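The protein record filed here.
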Amino acid sequence: MVVFAGQGDARRSMSLLWRADRPEQQDRRPGPGPRPGLSVEAIVAAAVAVADEDGMAALSMRAVGERLGRTAMALYTYVPSKGELLDLMYDAVHAELPTEYDDTGDWRAGLTEWARNGLEFHLRHPWVLQVSQARPVLGPHEYAGLDTLVRLLNATGLEAHLLRRLVGTLSHFVRGCAGTVAEARQAATVTGESDEEWWFARSALLGEVAPDFAERYPSLVAMETGSTPQPPDPDPDPGEGTVPYLEREARETFDAGLGVLLDGIEAAIRRAGTPRT
């Protein structure tokens, strides 16, 4: 499910994002007794909670209103539609991303920390991964995150045209890995079958249905044999804290891939003749 941001009224959405035209935060009492006043911030926080707990498919003005003890109609004075709400949600959660890094020392350490922070951020809010990157929200917190990444990359001394491409490469890498981990976490709940159950049920049949597997896919078999992969435990400890097999694999892929990307940046620095620490 891909969701496109920026589908609300452009002027209204940008005004809300940057708070240039903020509605008054009045306390409304439609029934007897005092009721807490609504605000853009309260509505956005409730919407984020709905999406975090139940996913993007559950997000609606009605669901947000119910969480706040209000009707959907009560929200429209503050947020005109679900389109503007999505923009506000997306930008609001990006405020969680750190912007303070040591950009005067080891650029590699800074980018490693940035990438790991980004991975965990997307796993806290997996619905963010469904918001297409084709059309950015253009909010202040989204820009702050981009500015932070550019500042870290500036320490490499590479030219601006290459830095622009590295921003996209690193961002897509982190989102892609986060998406795989998020899906690995959801798989058992959605299918009712653990990673281990799924893997062994199918791998046991592979030799039966494809007895010539090694001959048909020699490079793949050689890679798997040479890498001595750790198969999933057929009887995993069900205790708390057990990481599903597919999630472990995805996290190891993240660490290895990030290392290769940073090695590539180091090679680009050497080619440019601007070595940095």
